[in-house]
Amino acid sequence: MTNHADQTASPSSFADGEAVLRLRGASLGFGERTLWSGLDLDVHAGEFIAVLGANGSGKSSLLKAILGQLPLTAGTAEFLGEPITRGNRRIGYVPQQKLADDGVPLRAQDLVGLGVDGHRWGIPLPSRTRRAAVDELIRDVHAEPYRRSPLSTLSGGEQQRLRVGQALAGGPRLLLCDEPLLSLDLAYQYTISELVDASRRAHRLGVLFVTHDINPVLSMVDRVLYLAGGRVRVGTPEQVLRSGVLSELYGSPVDVIRTHGRIVVVGTPDDHHPAHHEGAGHAGEGSPRR
Description:
By secondary structure, the protein is of the alpha/beta class. Helix content is about 25%, strand content about 25%. It contains 7 helices and 12 strands. The strands form 3 sheets. The chain has a 6-stranded mixed beta sheet with strand order 6-7-8-3-9-10, sandwiched between helices. Strands 2-1-4-5 form a 4-stranded antiparallel beta sheet, with helices on one face. Strands 11-12 form a two-stranded antiparallel ribbon. Helix 2 packs across helix 3 and helix 4 runs parallel beside helix 5 (about 185-205). About 45% of the residues are buried. Residues about 1-5, about 10 and about 275-290 have low confidence and may be disordered.
């Protein structure tokens, strides 16, 4: 169990701005198991927070709680000053990269269009209004060259661009990204990271970005939320990603090495530790799936 002392204070440049998300004494668990507890966190407009931790530490579950899909075990969660409710269009969500199956009858622009009006029942949006909204989102994520291509022919990175566009369709104030770099090659990890960063700056979005590797977003991150062993730490990367801090969280020796502008973490009880998993997987920008 953690307490307020476990959370490192942050001199974030957004500390005086509007808090779009506020968690107080938040805890989440299943049965006898506590994923994390005592979390106090404000996410401010325009702030980029990386969420790190070993597999099973509750990173994705945190996003589900913010989406209203999981109830907190204790504490409170507010979005724009109101209690969290499920299905809030002002919270955008970018899921893990998952390739569309062959034969899926959707084009690139159709996927983005689902973000515009896929939630609606009854009378649809006028075609001109819908088309203008989709056009703007396609431009925002730089997907014009393949907007009419079948989804299943696009690379993983190209599909992730579209999912970012889909998440922006509701005019969100908060963007939740659940390991959006998973299985992308290194070049496209940086491309998607920069797209999220540009979007948060243009629209002053609060961002919670779950990732196993902080290096593609290290230059963009304002603060880090680290989850381990039911405990939490919040602070700048320099405050949290330190050998002493992570060793205390994990209860065993952990080394944090900074080399050539990268951070390498050695000794966490997770083969894919959160600051040094290259993620050089398949279906990057240059490898379309046919």
